[in-house]
Every structure is written in C-alpha cells, then in structure tokens.
Design a protein that fits this description.
heterodimer; A: about 650 residues; mainly alpha; 22 helices; globular; B: about 200 residues; about 0% strand
C-alpha cells in the first residue's frame, strides 16, 4: 500500500495552505459560479422556505384545532393551504434536493465543478426571483388560493377574478425554468464529467438518483409548462382552453398537470432514496446490498412513473379500461420501490450499526416511507380510492411519503454532510433530540389524519361542525404539531450553535466510502488538487481498507503502473487547471426574465424592458470567457509535486 | 460560450454543450408534444366559427413550409462551410438560413393578419385559441433561431468566435434549427393537413 489511489486528506491539506484564498465578500457570492457556494445558497433558501411553509401549516392547524373556529377566514385558509403545498414542493423540498445535487455531485464524481457553472448560478437566481413572485400575492391583496394543483376551471378568470392565481401562474413558470436549467446541468455533468475510472456502475447511488431525477424533470416539467401556458393565455389573453362553454376541456388541465405531477412525486423522493443509499452503508459498515438492484429499480420507478398519472383522477370517470390500466401500473410501481426497501434493510442486516443521528434519520425515513407506501398501494385500487379521494386519508398518505420520506432523508443528509459543508461538527446530542421530537411529533400529527380521513373528513375545509365528531382528533393533531415544531427549533439551534462554535471537522468524520470525504472539510474551491482515479464503487474504502475492498488487481500491478494510473504522465502535473470565471450575467438574465413575466401583470412595455435586459444578459454571457486563463490559479500546480511525492 | 471547465476530455468524448443541447431538445420535444396534444384535444370542439375549414389557406402555408424546410438545407451548407474553414461561404449560407426563416415568419404574420380580418382572434373560439398559441409558440422558436443565426453571422466578423475550430458553435445552433423545422412538419400535418 505504498501508493494511494486518492490523495489523502493530509496531503491535500498541504496544497490547501499554499493555495490562493478564494475570493470573499458579498460581490463574490453574487457573481459566484462555484457549485459549492451555489449549493449552500440553495440550502439556505430551502430552509427559509421550509420554515415559511411550516408557519403556513401551523396556521392551518390552529384554525382546525376546534370545530367552527374563526381564527382565519375561509379565503385566508384557501391561500394558506395553497401556498403551504406550493411552497413545500417547489421552494423547500426541490431546492433542498438541488442543494445536495449541486454541492455533492461534482465532489462525488471527482470533478472541479458542474458542466455549466454559470447556468448553475442562473438556476439559483431564477429560483430566488420565482419564489418571490409566487409569494408577492401575500402583499398585494391575496396569495394564490386554488390549491397547489390549481384545477381548471376554478382558476378561470370567471371564478378566480383577483390576481391570486396570476401570481401562481407567473411564479410556477419562472420556477420551472430553474428546475429545467439545473437538470440539464446535472445530466451533462454526470454523463460527461466523471473522474477516470468512474464508470456508470461505479457511480455513488446518490449520483445515480440525481441523474434519474434530472431526467424526470426534463421530461415531466414541459407538461406543466404547457398547462400553465394555456392557463396563462386563458387568464391574460381570454383564450378558451379551459372554458367549457366554448368547448374547452377542464380535464385537459388535470391530465397535463398530473403528467407532470406524478413524476414530480418521484422527483421529490428519489433524491432521498439516493441519500439513504449513501448513509445506510456508511453507518452499517457494509457496502450497499444489491447496488445494481437499487439503481435499476430507480430507473424502473422513473419509467413507470410516467404511466401512473391518471390515478390522481380515478373519480373523474375515465371509464373502466383506463381506470383499470392506471390502477395496475400503480400497483406495479410498488415493486421497484419495495426492492429498495429490502436493499436498505439487508444492508443493515448483519452490519455493525452505528446509530448516529444521520443513521437515525435514515431508519426513520425507511420506516415512515413504508407506511406512506402502503397507504399508496391502497389508493391504487380505484374503488378504494373513490372512498378516500380528497379526504384526510390522502393528506396523511402524501405526508408520510413527502415528509416521512423526503424530508427525513434530507434532514439526515443535512447532518451527514454538515461537517463537509461547514467544516465544523454539529452537536450530536441535540441532533438526536431533534430526531426524537421530529419522529414523535410527525407521527402525532399525521397518523391520526388517517383516522379522521376514514371517518370522512375532507381536505381543504376551513372548518367543520362539532356534530361530525372530528374535533377530538383535530385537537390532538394540532397539539402534536408543537412537538414537531420543537424538533425544528432544536435543529435551528443546533445548526447556528455548530456554525458558531462547533469543533473543526476532520476530512472524513464518518469513515465514509465516497470521494467527497477524501478532501478537506470544507473543500478547497478547486475541490481536488488532483483528479482521483476510481477503481471501485467504494473508492475511499478501497483506499483505506484494501484488504477488504481492494480491486483484486492489488499486488499484480507495479507501483509505477499504479502511479501512472493515478497521475497519468501524458497529463503533466494538473496543467494549471482553469476554474470558471465569476459572472454577473446569470443574475442579469434572471432579472430580465422575471421582469418580462411580471410585465404580463403590469404593462406590455415592461415585457419589452425585461426582454431587453435578458438580451443583455445572454450576450454578455456569451461574450464573456467562461474559464480563466489559468494564470491566477497556478499555485496549486506549484504545490502539486509535493503531493505526488507524499506517501 | 464555452461554459465548461476544459481541464479534461469529457467522459463520453462529446462536448458538454452539445450534450446539453440534446438534453434541452429532449425537453423541448416533451414541450411540443404536450402542446400538440393540447391542440388535438381542442380540435373540432369550437362552438362558434370561423372554423378551420373556412379559413385555412393550405396552398399558401405549404409554400411557407417549403421555405422553412429549405432553410434546413442552407443550415447544413453553412455548417459544412465553416467546418471546411470557408468563412465567406459560411456567411452566405447562414444569412440565407436566417432570411428563409424570416420569410417563414413573414408568412406567419401575413396569415395571422388575414385571420384577424376574417374574424378569427385568439379569444374568438377554441380553434383560434389553440391555433394561435401553438403556431405562435413555434414562431417564437423560429424567431429566436433567427436571432441566434444572425448573431453567428455577426460573430464571424469578430476574431475567433466563429472559426473552423469553433464550428461547434454553428453545429449546436444547427441542432436547434433542424429541430424547430421538424416540429413544424408535425404541426403543419396536424393543423393543416388532417381533415377537420
């Protein structure tokens, strides 16, 4: 073991100290194209909106705590549940997943950045502006109030005369651009930017799930864009797409929405699947059980995910054949999902489990997702679904998969990668307490929703009569929310405290198996002093435990050959690698697009203004060199020989 | 526009921008697919006139479709010219492509105005709504393509922007341009040729 497949943290540390410091200050963050900084910006924005969505949910629960309550009006209630759903899906869960895509994918595949760094910055700015636009209604007379899936023709001008739905339309259009841009970037990055030796079937499962999610977004979001475009024309230009009197079909909206909406469910859960597949092996001290099965079932979920959308529409009366087909495909998709559950369970089976906080969140995720998955299979049966449609049972179901599944996964990821991102350790006791309160609180809130749902309580009612008998459980749910909220307070305290006073994190605090742990915490801005060569699915374990996770060729190749493999001589000394230039144009383009869309509400002149700004953004972008000339980043090169000779 | 870190050859050997363009086109396929599906759902469901049979001028649009398809030929020749380093020939063909695109757009504007005179606006009936939105969004794609091509023409006078070694800039624009043309074939078939 004279030679290392990957530069050890200690070696890279030597490079780090001699390196130019990366630019600091507000302007450097505004113009940044560094995937790690953008990932952190995504994370902050998504946590902010997680709290906004949480506050909206809390207000809903206060209103429902007792029968015939008048804490908020019916209209405010409509706005709150619409924005709770929209915020959690588009502004909390998706950006939080995108935060980890951005931060981790280049590190995990051994790249210095994503394929299109400026497009990455653009994605974040568009997300920021889109999130502001969609929330502007709160300050201008009424937020969107037609539900997160905004069914036609409730959204027609005739039935939603205010600007409420306009904000939703414009916001969703802008947010869609952000998701699409991120996905193009991730697809190209993952396919094209892998370190030598990292074949597709050696990629970490999180990278695989990112790729699958990105493909889903690329294929599914256009349907939403088209639906919202039709709605936009209906509202702003009096077209007739969803106007039944003129022959338009409100059902078209439902199809377009759910052709997007069901893959969206997998867009939200697959990143969490990837996270579980990373964290469970590390804390079980075993490689992922059935790696290929996890990957292929992920692909199967993505493919089948496009054939199940109409199970959201069983009660519209599509006729027996489509209803049966969609019922069957929905049951079928439970199979690959179940495969993954078994994989994670068998990864833990016989492992040396270490129940640190990230692992607790993973176990919580798996168990809660099973409950949500089982109630999901129930809905696959059309007669059962007809009973449960639009009841609290459905609310319980999708919170078990999206909160119990996605958010538990993402929270675990937050702890697992916190040392890498922040360079500080967090407080393990607080983290465990967070898990405990979140897990208990989550079940106190959402488990009884199954029961009130089966008792017939519909979704989206702003109040109910005492005679229904739902008051007891609703009070219970609303009180349970305090436990949940306390968990998130602990989370916030832990994060702030750890950022301020946490002890310095080592490069590899969990003894992990993926490449991001081979470099210091936090990583230098150029990520890898030397692009690593990957020989197995668990490159860092191969490096640390060659006797267990060696390549089999160990001992057969000479040190010189291995050395050549690691630092190919035909690529002399990491040829003064060129990091991408900071750029202001992504921001300018995002501003232009946002102003252009807002022009629909204000004045056509504003649309022209927005287009002009976007035009400046595009041309500035094209004419600005993407990468530096290398002269400003030569120091790592100077330090490189020291790294090479280190043993 | 080389927006990538050029340290290492890519894993697949394909240029990042080219792969990115293909990913975008996949998405645009789904976009037009959903758009055309929306048109098909709305087809023959107008409750008031003018109906498509009263108003569509198939010979005229056939001609402008022919012009658009010929622009793809010019695009191929422009790419071939720049790949062989023949910058003057490239300028001729890229301007020809843009001009043919502009003629198509002119035809569309003429058609829209004629329809307006015949009493068909975007809110008149479902046919008007779906027709103007579908063909209008396609026209917007063509217009963006024309701006792109003219930018390449302009760039060919700037040092190093459009040269033999950077012919990929032209190739990527070509991918987009051909895609927009192919989509028109489907739209033309669905909107004009299928009997109502």
């Amino acid at each position: 073991m004279a030679m290392r497949a990957i530069a050890r943290p200690s070696q890279v540390g030597a490079v780090h100290e001699t390196t130019l410091t990366e630019p600091t200050g507000l302007w450097s963050w505004i113009t940044t194209v560094d995937h790690k900084r953008i990932g952190i910006m995504y994370l902050f924005l998504s946590i902010f909106y997680l709290f906004v969505g949480g506050i909206e949910a809390s207000l809903l629960r206060v209103q429902l705590a007792k029968p015939s309550n008048s804490f908020v009006s019916a209209d405010t209630f409509n706005q709150l549940f619409t924005m709770h759903g929209t915020t959690m899906i588009f502004l909390a869960l998706m950006p939080m997943s995108a935060a980890f895509f951005n931060y981790l994918v280049p590190l995990m595949i051994g790249a210095r950045d994503v394929a299109f760094p400026r497009l990455n910055a653009f994605s974040w700015w568009v997300l920021l502006f889109g999130s502001i636009v969609i929330n502007l209604g709160w300050f201008t007379g009424g937020a969107p109030n037609a539900g997160w899936f905004s069914y036609a023709n409730l959204t027609s001008s005739a039935f939603s005369p205010g600007h409420n739905v306009d904000w939703w339309v414009l916001g969703v259009q802008i947010l869609g651009l952000s998701s699409l841009a991120t996905s193009f970037n991730m697809i190209v990055t993952i396919i094209n930017m892998r370190a030598p030796g990292m074949t597709l079937m050696r990629m970490p499962p999180f990278v695989w799930m990112t790729l699958i999610t990105a493909v889903l977004i690329v294929m599914a979001f256009p349907a939403l864009t088209v639906g919202v475009t039709f709605l936009m024309f209906d509202r702003f230009f009096s077209t007739n797409f969803f106007v039944p009197e003129a022959g338009g079909s409100p059902l078209l909206w439902q199809h377009l929405f759910w052709v997007f909406g069901h893959p969206e469910v997998y867009i939200l859960i697959l990143p969490a699947f990837g996270i579980v597949s990373e964290i469970v092996p590390v804390f079980s001290r075993k490689p992922l059980f059935g790696y290929s099965a996890v990957i292929f079932s992920g692909i199967a979920i993505a493919v089948l995910g496009f054939s199940v959308w109409a199970h959201h529409m069983f009660t519209v009366g599509m006729g027996p054949v489509p209803t049966s087909v969609f019922g069957l495909t929905t049951m079928l998709i439970a199979l690959p999902t179940g495969v993954k559950i078994f994989n994670w369970t068998f990864t833990m089976w016989g492992g040396h489990l270490s129940l640190k906080s990230p692992m607790l969140f993973m176990i919580g995720m798996i168990s809660m997702f099973i409950i949500g998955g089982l109630s999901g299979v129930m809905h696959a049966s059309p007669p059962v679904d007809a009973q449960q449609q639009d009841s609290y049972f459905v609310v319980a179901h999708f919170h078990y998969v999206l909160f119990g599944g996605s958010l538990f996964g993402l929270m675990g990821a937050m702890y697992y990668w916190f040392p890498k991102m922040a360079g500080k350790m967090f407080h393990e006791g607080l983290a465990k307490a967070h898990f405990f309160f979140m897990f208990v609180g989550f079940n106190l809130v959402f488990m009884p929703m199954h029961w009130v749902g089966l008792e017939g309580m519909p979704r989206r009612i702003y109040t109910y009569d005492e005679s229904t008998g739902w008051g007891g459980w609703n009070l219970f749910i609303s009180l349970g929310l305090f436990v949940l909220v306390f968990g998130f307070i602990l989370f916030t305290v832990n994060m702030l405290l750890s950022l301020a006073t946490g002890e310095k994190a080592p490069a590899d605090p969990w003894d992990s198996d993926t490449l991001e742990w081979s470099i210091p915490s936090p990583p230098p801005f150029y990520n890898f002093a030397h692009i690593p060569t990957v020989l197995t699915r668990v490159p860092l374990w191969t490096e640390k435990y060659p006797d267990v996770y060696g390549t089999g060729e160990h001992g057969q190749s000479t040190d010189a050959e291995r050395m050549h493999n690691i630092y190919p001589v035909d690529e002399p000394a990491e040829t003064g690698f060129h990091m991408p230039n900071a750029s202001i144009y992504p921001l300018i383009l995002a501003v232009g697009i946002t102003i252009g869309f807002l022009g629909l509400l204000i004045n056509p002149v504003v649309i022209v203004l927005g287009a002009a700004i976007a035009f400046i953004g595009v041309f500035g972008w094209i004419l600005q060199p993407a990468v530096g000339d290398g002269t400003s980043h030569d120091e790592p090169v100077a330090a490189a020989p020291a790294t090479r000779s280190a043993k | 526009m080389a927006d990538h870190v050029l340290d290492h050859p890519t894993t697949t050997g394909l240029d990042n921008r080219k792969l990115g363009m293909w990913a975008f086109l996949a998405s645009d396929c789904m976009f037009f697919g959903a758009l055309i599906a929306g048109y098909m759902v709305s087809r023959n469901r107008s409750v008031v006139g003018p109906y498509p049979g009263d108003i569509l001028n198939i010979p005229f649009t056939s001609l402008s479709s022919f012009v658009l398809l010929m622009s793809s030929l010019a695009m191929v020749l422009a790419l071939s010219a720049i790949q062989r380093g023949k910058i003057h020939l490239f300028r001729v063909w890229v301007v020809t492509t843009a001009l043919l695109g502009l003629i198509f757009l002119g035809g569309q504007i003429y058609e829209f105005t004629e329809f307006k005179h015949a009493g068909l606006g975007i809110s008149t009936n479902l046919f008007g709504s779906s027709f103007f939105v579908l063909t209008g969004i396609h026209g917007t794609h063509v217009a963006l393509g024309v701006i792109w091509l003219l930018s390449l023409f302009y760039g060919s006078f700037k040092k190093g922007l459009v040269t033999k070694s950077s012919s990929l800039n032209v190739e990527i624009a070509g991918l987009y341009w051909h895609f927009v043309d192919i989509v028109w074939i489907i739209i033309f078939t669905v909107v004009y040729l299928l009997p109502y």
